[in-house]
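Hi Y.,

Following your request, here is the sequence exactly as I used it, all 357 residues.
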Amino acid sequence: MSAFKIVLVGLMGYCFYFPPIHAQRPWQIEAAFTQGNFYSHADFRVPLLRPMRSLAFSICRPTAGERYWQQLHRYPDMGLRLKIRDMGNPAVYGYTFSIIPYLNFYPWKKDKWGISIAHGTGLSYITKIYSAHNPYNRLISSHINAASFLYTGIYYQPQAPWRITTTLEMSHESNGNIQKNNRGFNTWAVGIAFRRTWNGPARRLAPFVPTGPSKGWLFSAELSCGLHDYDTYTKQIQVTPEATAAIWRQHNDRFRSYLGLGYNVYPFPLIERAAFVLVGEEVLLGAMSVRYSLGTYLSHTGPELRLIEKVGISYYPFKNMGNSIPARIAKGIYIGAYLKAHGSVAAHIELTVGNVF
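Below is the corresponding structure, written out as tokens. Let me know if you'd prefer a different format.
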């Protein structure tokens, strides 16, 4: 039996026979197996010798509704996932080891069936990188990288403690163009996951009923600096200043959309200034939020650099966590960290400060 199969059997056994844990909320232990491949940067890759295969081990707990956002998002699970992945060509791409906190949402569920959507961002360690000894790896050049995943799954719960889920997962790992080469690992995978729950079912607080509407128009202004192209010899890093103003539409207590106009002083990898337009969505999680946006430059940049993508998190440190109408919506000063890309190629890691009013 191969080492890969031994680890798989061990994780499944740990999931099935882990002794009971006593806690106020249920504990959930999950073991998963996936298989997949790259889905981008075909011109920069070398062939794989076998499909990518991974093992993931997760521990999570359902939220109980202590925060208003937990009730709004139908009591998602909060967890931590450890994952090891065989990249399919060990001599060139090696293995990845990741640790990622995540949220698991349930947009639809019945007694035994349901749909889950999980999203998380964390760190990964990659064993093989671009170097003089490994010139064929033109996708990644740093051992430590940011890692993010998004998966959707259909689960079946044959009886209370057990759950089986089939999953489709998309993941990304890169250093945000801090160090080249850095096309990044963009992968897809299908898989199956086995979960067991102890001390369930979850005891949840009664939903809070708001006393007024939360729809409306908002505005924001932000300043950012993009960090990229670290020079290992001079120990210097390039900085791209950026300013953005946006108008927002608050749809409800969970979501809001925005249309923004921005300006780069030195938009890597261009050599001149450029304005751009963005449209995006913000998912509100109390004082935290997750943002996704797409955009384009308004000046000529060539087809490869026309598309702009951003994804990241924001934090509103001065948001009142009470239940009054103004306090339910995250507004005011915020700080954020985003990954900006051109096409699916990372441009820089962006640090932001702004204000929603």
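The longest helix spans residues 3-17.

Thanks again,
Q.
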